[in-house]
Write a structure and sequence with these properties.
315 residues; Competence protein CoiA; CoiA_nuc; CoiA-like_N
Length: 315
C-alpha cells in the first residue's frame, strides 16, 4: 500500500515524510533531515506524559485545549494552547529539554506580542539543587505573594511542585519553600493565596559553613576572587583579613552569579580613598557585579533593594 503513495506531507510544515523501518524500532514516519523545525522527534517519555497530563487537567476544568497546534503567525508549536470562554488564549510549555536564554526570550516575546498568556512548566532537568544555574534562573518569576518561584510538573506522581521564596546567600546552598498541587485548580488556589515570603536569617551553622567555604576558596586560589585579592593586596591586606560583617547576615534575592560580598567589600576598600558617597560608590560597584539573565524579572527593583539594604548597614 505504501509503495503506491508517491509522497506523504505534514499539514503543519508542508514537508515530506519518509518511512523508517529498522531492527531496533517499529516502522514509523520521520522528516527528512533538517527539513522540519516544528517537531522534536527525540521527545522524551517525560515530555510526552507531561503534555497529556496537562491536557487532561485542562479538560477537567472545561477548557478547550489543543496539543501542539501549529501557530502559523509565530511559526511555533506550543505544547498546549487553551481557549477561555472570553476568547483569551493561554499557552503552556512543558520544558524538559535544554533551551538557550535567547530562544526562551524569543518564544516568550512572540507569545506576549500576540497578547497570549504563557506559562513555562519545568521537568526534571531543571530541578533546583544546592546552587542556582543560568539554565534554571532564566525561568524564575517573581510576585510579592510568592517571592521568586518556579513551577515543576512531576509526571511520576502526577502533581505540580511549586518552589517559592527562592533565596541565596554567599557560599551556602540556596533556600526555598515547597508545595505540591494535584490539579490545576489546586495550583491556581495556591498561587493566589497570601504567603508573605521573607528572607531567612543565616543560622550559626550556616555562618560557620559560609566562612569555612570562603576560606577554602582562598586556599585554593578561586579565580572568582582574583580581582578582590588584587584590590586587597595593593592596600596591604589579604582576603583572610576581610571583616566577617561584610557577608550578608540573611539570605537575599537569587540574582547573583558571583558572591554578593565582593562588590560590598570593594565599596569599603574604595571609601577610604574616595570623596564619593557610599551611595555613589555602591551604585557603581553593584553594576560591576555579575547577575543571572532573568528575562521575567524586573532587575532594577532588586538592584535598588540591594543598595538600600547595604546602605542601611552604613548609617
Amino acid at each position: 500500500m505504501l509503495k503506491r503513495i508517491k509522497y506523504i506531507y505534514v499539514p503543519g510544515c508542508k514537508q515530506k515524510l519518509i518511512v523508517k523501518a529498522g531492527k531496533q524500532k517499529a516502522m514509523h514516519f520521520a522528516h527528512y533531515k533538517k527539513t522540519c523545525h516544528l517537531f522534536s522527534e527525540g521527545e522524551t517519555q517525560e515530555h510526552l506524559q507531561g503534555k497529556y497530563q496537562l491536557y487532561h487537567w485542562l479538560k477537567e476544568i472545561g477548557l478547550n485545549s489543543q496539543i501542539e497546534a501549529y501557530m502559523s503567525n509565530l511559526k511555533q508549536r506550543p505544547d498546549i494552547i487553551s481557549s477561555l470562554q472570553s476568547g483569551e488564549k493561554i499557552v503552556f510549555e512543558f520544558q524538559c529539554a535544554p533551551i538557550s536564554t535567547e530562544k526562551l526570550i524569543s518564544r516568550s516575546y512572540g507569545y506576549a506580542n500576540k497578547k497570549l498568556k504563557f506559562f513555562w512548566i519545568l521537568g526534571q532537568r531543571y530541578r533546583l539543587k544546592k546552587k542556582l544555574t543560568q539554565q534554571i534562573a532564566q525561568f524564575i518569576r517573581w510576585t510579592p505573594n510568592l517571592g521568586f518561584y518556579l513551577i515543576y510538573l512531576d509526571v511520576g506522581h502526577k502533581r505540580f511542585e511549586i518552589c517559592y521564596a527562592i533565596q541565596q546567600a554567599d557560599y551556602v546552598p540556596i533556600k526555598y519553600l515547597k508545595h505540591y498541587a494535584y490539579s490545576l485548580k489546586e495550583l491556581h488556589h495556591f498561587l493566589h493565596i497570601k504567603h508573605k515570603p521573607k528572607y531567612f536569617p543565616l543560622t550559626l551553622i550556616e555562618i560557620k559553613q559560609q566562612m569555612a567555604n570562603f576560606r577554602s576558596r582562598i586556599f585554593y586560589n578561586d579565580p572568582g576572587l582574583r580581582n578582590l585579592r588584587n584590590k586587597c593586596y595593593v592596600r596591604g591586606l589579604t582576603l583572610y583579613e576581610i571583616p566577617t560583617d561584610v557577608f550578608p547576615q540573611k539570605y537575599c534575592p537569587p540574582i547573583y552569579r558571583v558572591p554578593s560580598f565582593i562588590w560590598k567589600m570593594s565599596v569599603l576598600l574604595l571609601k577610604g580613598e574616595s570623596n564619593l558617597s557610599y551611595l555613589e560608590l555602591a551604585s557603581k560597584e553593584l553594576q560591576k557585579s555579575r547577575f543571572y539573565n532573568m528575562p521575567f524579572i524586573k532587575m532594577e527593583y532588586f538592584f535598588k533593594l540591594e543598595l538600600r539594604n547595604f546602605l542601611a548597614t552604613k548609617e
